[in-house]
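Researcher: Here's my situation. A collaborator sent me these components and asked whether they could plausibly form a single complex. I don't have experimental data yet, so a predicted model of the whole assembly would be a useful starting point for our discussion.
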Amino acid sequence: MPSRLEIKLKQDLFDAEGAGIRRKAREYFGFKVEEIRVIRVLTLDADFSPAQLEQIQTEIFTNPVTEESSYSPIAEAFDWLIWVGFRPGVRDTGGSTAAEAVEDLLGMRLGPDQAIYTSKLYEIRGDLSENEVRKIATHLFANELIQQWRIYSRDDWNIQEGIGFLVPKVVLDHKPKVHTLPIRSDEELTRISTERNLALQQRDIPVIRQYFLREDVRKERQAVGLDLPTDVELEYISQARSDHCNHNTFRGLFRYHDISTGHKEIVDNLFKTCIEAPTLEIKAEKEWVISVLWDNAGVARFDDDHYYVITGETHNSPSNMEAYGGAITGIVGIYRDPMGTGKGSKLILGLYGYCVGHRDYGGELMPHLHPRRLLDGIIEGVRDGGNKSGIPTPYGLVLFDQSYLGKCLVFVTALGIMPARVGNESSHRKTTFPGDLIIMSGGKVGKDGIHGVTAASETYSEHTPAGHVQIGDPYTQKKMHDFLLEARDEELISFITDNGGGGLSSSIGESARFSNGCRVDLDKVPLKYDGLDQWEIWVSESQERMTIAIRPEHLERFMELSAKHAVESTFIGEYNDSGYLKLDYRGKTCAYIKMDLLESDFPQWEFDAEWTSPSLRGLTEPVLSEPVDHGALLRAILSRPNICARNWIARQYDHEVQGGSVIKPLVGKRRDIPSDASVVRPILDSKKGLAVSQAMNPFYSVIDTYHMAAATIDEAVRKTLAVGGDPHHLAGVDNFCWPTIEYDPEKNPDGKYKAAQLVRANWALRDCCLDYGIPLLSGKDSMYIDGNLEGPFGERRKVSGLPTLLFTVTSLINDIARCVTLDAKFPGDLVYVLGETRNELGGSEYYQLMESLGLHVPEVDPEKLWPHYVALHRAIQEGLVSSCHAVSRGGLAVHLALVSMAGELGLDIRLPLIPGAHGLTVSQILYSESCGRFVVTVPPERREGFDKIFSGLNIEQVGIVTESPSLSIRDENGHAIIEEDLFELKEAWKRPFEGLT
Amino acid sequence: MRQVKALVLTGYGLNCDYETDYSLRLAGAQSRRIHINQFITGKENSFKARLQDYHILVLGGGFSWADDHGAGVLMASKMKHHLGEEIDRFIREGKLIIGICNGFQALINLGLLPGFENRYRERHAAITYNDSGNFIDAWVNLKVNENSPCVFTKGLSTLELPVRHGEGKVYGADHVIRQLTANHQVVLQYAAEDGNLARGQWPFNPNGSLEDIAGICDPSGRIFGLMPHPEAYNHYTNHPDWTLRKEALIRQGKQFTSEEGEGIKIFRNAVAYFRN
């Protein structure tokens, strides 16, 4: 008989959570909600004695100072109640920690059929209709993909029974079975692939059939009791050949055709030509590049004794469906990559990037989640994922654009650090040897993430696991992280990798390539619930799991450490050199595949790529006269969603944990202006720092993706240099998010153009990386950022996200004492602008405000810019610079304002002195987004030394820092073009999101 | 000189252990990070550790047991059931306990704080959700009660430290708060920029804590809990204004006199307590 404990804050205590929801209900929907109070519900699905129940209630779950609780319903004085609980199979961390605490308290173990579940009951007071309550339930509380909900009015509430006993237990009435699949023809296999959601690539089907029909293969298979391919085998091949695991798009063949010039070119493999080749070339020159292009993350030297590790990826589709769950799974998931790089690294940083529709979107399209709710959920997911992992999240970007209504983008980037050596070996090396044991550590396996998208359309029953949308569990993973670092330091680990996409199928499949074979007992894999088919165990993407190879003699110690950290580890098989991947279930073989099958000649993907130049596409500069009121214009730009303060996000993220914060996300006198880059001191007794920054400029993609990519890389580079980064140590991570590039006359008529956009962006990536000497330590591509949204007439409209590149740059800081922030520091300091301003307003914030696009997109000339960057670094190293800021979106006017607002000091600027100003209009000078530029302030007494370093370069002293709090920009006659109180500017900049905490 | 031994608890979602350990070592202690289970494990093995071998016990920051059922609640429950007597003995022997953030929440839930009349098992106070309803990372100004018996804050009158929490509001019935104040057990209070008490004003008081309370001690002053993180101010570059201060110093012909952050003073006081 289950019991139900209901806990709530005492009536006279302020309910902050309830108040937050009330505020949203009023703000979002205008509902007259007077009060919301929260009741926490624990459903104990086990038999406890009355004495035990009382112990559970009073000794653990009720705080006598603030809370009251009861095993009977305690809701009172409400107009409506909304109950929200998880669907069966959804990760309920609160339920498992509750079970852990109860077991500890009572000194017992819950049986396999017993569990504790958490849910919430909301007491709502206010004059609301049932429809309004329903809307609160579905639009604020519950996402039906993972949660179930009920509403009760005061009248239909049964005071004795309350919500009853809702036990979201997974019951699968299913006996696991391996199926063999007929492959008489390509058509038959195609049909089976569709029926079973195998998602096999059409081009791969003949290759797969040929393999299973080969005489030698058949003979060997018969010897282990197999004949036709099993579902386990085809699932394995499908996973391994997926675009996600294999980057088929980037490795594809592009027939590039420039319509304007007639130039045609075959581009064979973007990954090889634009990512791998330049990175290897740079690696050969830079000894600090340690490990690239093969492991879960890239590795570079931090100092003689340490390496740093970095990678980034996206978690778009899951976040788009369930924002909180998708985002937390994304950030917690990316943390496993550095953990599984080399012999394993300690996580030191997380970064985020969000691209969503406008927060106040009021249009007629109906995305699955409104951008406001979506963004809230994403922010909270990354918050809990980062904060609860004890990893600082000190940097991130947010971009609003209508094009992301179709699918939001959630970028997550993770950095780790590891000792340069583990035992006698460099820590970046790892391999599996025949005889090594295969261990799975971390969580258990359920139906999570299996065939994600198709599962979403299946019908629900009360006990169907809703596993395709997951909720990451930082608690379980943090325990595992601590455990694995200890195991690494005791030299117990031969090989380690994470279980992400493809689950065991990828982690074991890939790690077994080193030893050239493996054998796994699928029945040994610990399951969340019974009834999983063998293939499901093999490909499940249940989170928080790592696969580790250890020598047999280390097993005992490994398990002892695992137990110490309360981490579940299971020995599930061993590596060998048989040349085969062999999977058994209760002694019977269910998969037997040659290791080299996946290296065989699968056909390359092919794309037509047609480029039409911007002018041929009809793009022109807009017809605009010079604005008269530049002060009002500047305030208007500062209030735009992609320029204004979004500080409420950074403040929710712990950016101080680990104790090495040097340059924080928000800097300046009031700690409210976003920093160019973040700097941390990962080794606390060292003066060395690690700087990291990111950039994205998808608006330029609409004109030319080549320049979009170049400008993005240049911006990220400049931001790290602005805080003191070293131009001779710049490392990059490229994260591409692109709409579908496969041409289809109906579904994707502009596919060829989008393919050409991808090629051009990659060319810029190649060129800039070579010119700036940036090895790509890591990178990922995420295609298909399109959505088909329901419109007002029942139609579906395709919305494609802008081609987006998020570029991350890391750099080293030799002595953190040399770091610089962007805030103007003292009156009398000289203001310099470094780098040329040109007529480059295409895609700019200013043109967007004027509702136009333009043609002249910012272009980058790395050769010309490089000497500026080297000189700037020298000036910062010599301690000559008082503040430094990279000019980016919005142009000079916006970024001068930020420097002024950060220091709460005025600036007096002479417009004609700005490098490149001659021949430009005032608005071009103020709002052009030309690359390569910085605003630098220098005290007068350091002027001489500073000027000397920059002699012959494009730099001018354009004004001074003033005591009076105003931003003055004057023309050649000294007349003010802009004369704005900086506090008013700041108010305009903060206003759009000021109510958010 | 006498060796002062400190231990920083780890495991079950606790974090901040590396920098807390580092801070203790900077302060002159011989410090170790030790997993909670090393004290609990029944059998003798290579992990086994004993509380009594240490002078300073640190319950640091983090999200123990994910904070799912109230911050620090499950950690307190675990410690009470497995380490209750050892902790009593630790206190009787005149040793020091500091709880930072999640550790403070655990000390409150254990009843070690406020510990009125040395009754260390009674829960009189609570730490609950920030009034804002959300997690916040911000540096705060703190006013130190110089009349407090607190060993850790001796010689300090003000302090700046970061807070990072979603549940930091110190709450208790009126008489509890009055008693805390009367006993000078209120050690740290949130202050505005001018040094006066924040009087509940956000963001100076970041969580709505009653009487701006940021940290309290037991009547003996040897058990101390605080929401702000002293270990996160272990170096001068941790301070949000350090680049401005550096420029100001240079212009006066000066430079930072010490690399050490102000937060280390808390740990130095703890070490000094055993040395003197």
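Model: Some features of this prediction you could bring to your collaborator: Residues 73-92 of chain B form the longest helix (20 residues). The radius of gyration of chain B is 18 Å.
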